[in-house]
Amino acid sequence: MPSLQPHVSDHSSEHNPPPSPSMRRKLRDTLRKYYKEA
What we know:
The protein is mostly helical. Helices cover about 60% and strands about 0% of the residues. It is built from two helices and no strands. It has helices spanning about 10-15, 20-35.
């Protein structure tokens, strides 16, 4: 359970996920890999 993040409804979280550094890093690596393979 994400104790660091404030409690938000699933609908709100699904529409607007919290921008955590690790999530952003993973997304950036995924984009880099995607562009590298393309």
